[in-house]
Amino acid sequence: MMKVLIVDDEQMEREGMQTILERAFPNLIIEQAKNGQMAVELSHTFQPDIVLMDIKMPGMTGLEAVEKISSDFPTTHFVMVTAYDTFDYLRAAIKLGVKDYLLKPSKVSDIVSTIGKVVEQVEEAKKKRFLEQQTSRVIETDVVTQLLFDHVHDVHVDMLVDMLDTPIPHKLFVLVLHVPNNASSVTKTVREYVRTHHLGWIGPLYGNQLPIIVFRKEKTTYRSQAQQVVKKLLQEITVYSSGVFIGIGSECEGLETVKQSYQHALAATMDLSLESKYSYYDQVRVNSSNIGQFTRQEIGEYIRLGQWHQISQYMTKTVDSLERENVSLIQAQQRILEVLWSVSNVLEELGLERNSYFLDGVENYQHLRIAALQVFNGMREGFEQLKEQTETDTIHQLKNYIMAHSHEDISLDALANRVELSPIYISKMFKEKLGINYIDFLTECRVEKAKKLLSDPEKSVKEITFEVGYHDPNYFSKVFKKICQVTPKEYRKNLMWSQ
């Protein structure tokens, strides 16, 4: 519903205008203000889409009120209603961004026509902002994914960051929220809070982990900012779930090192039983008593990223640490079984049938190392076979989907939901199987479609921009030139010459 505020010091003028608008536009929500000061105050609660503002009023003038309201609500559209058809008034109104004006008295048809045009402008502006927000959210999610999980060429990260048009501070840090299963209300609330308060960028939910890249504030310390953000987030989401835990990564300088902060934030979630419901990385003590728990927190990521050597190294370090502290062989065996079961749980989520795993014939620590690696390698081989069987079909399915829907905003989340795999796994699979990431492939599809459309001289470059899935002709031209070495206009010109 569109909201309109009528501002005039004459009640009859206000009532008459409201009657005309209600008859012509029955879906409008209309409020009135009898002076400029009241209009400014009412705008904070009513938040009108359109303001019909009288210029000459006692106290605060209409132009002064417009300036104050527009500074707080820059998307509000203004129509000046005045008996003073002078150049100075009009020039001042135009400088303030006023969309149109009505002279007193006006014909009903003139009022309806003028307000009708402004209503259309508001609707178009809302649609544009919605598309920009949706596009921005898709890009933001992809940027976080690519920064934290190493699945894209650097040039695309730079281009996507440029598209977000966000000033990036010199220092950042990462939060990782451990979210209980089926807690969609938690993730939705967190996303809205992060974006509303401009805290930074938020990534996709990966398993039970939700990463947030937080931009550092200059006038506060890292620790005080982190504590303030975390406590605010916990206040927002405790209503929905008491099972949330937040790991706080170390402070880093620039996007190049943000992945290290992410790894630290993951490590900080190793002990979910802390009463505070959050932990800093520098509070984590990695020793023989908790190294098994530390491995379980990261094990899912390593499997999905194909970094099997990281898991085997963790197991070896765990055994070495337990042996150095003279932990009994039975306890050590149980600890390694916990790690292997963690691996098995992740593999089952990825489609591998669970088997029973035992460490038979273990008589000493050397036997334990050998038996654990044998079981682990058996799991890895089973997964690799399953992976080889399914990935070819999955990639084929995703390629066909992207080619058919390249004009839409396709995110990693959307692709992952389509084939019921994690976004990170999808990104990695594209790069391994095709040698490029999904954004490269999506871009190629859009450019190929654009080439075909450019052969039609009746279509403008702007029309083609929107038809192939971009929202900014300048950015489309930049992408097209990067791939084709020429701009769309130059490509069309060359195409015409060759025919």
Automatic annotation (TrEMBL):
Protein name: Response regulator
Lineage of origin: Bacteria, Bacillati, Bacillota, Bacilli, Bacillales
GO biological process: phosphorelay signal transduction system
Keyword Nucleotide-binding: no
A molecular-function term among this protein's GO annotations: sequence-specific DNA binding
PTM-bearing positions, type 4-aspartylphosphate: D54
SMART domains: HTH_ARAC, REC
Domain Response regulatory: 3-119
Gene3D superfamilies named among the record's database cross-references: 3.40.50.2300, Homeodomain-like (1.10.10.60)
Keywords: DNA-binding, Phosphoprotein, Transcription, Transcription regulation
Domain HTH araC/xylS-type, residue spans: 396-494
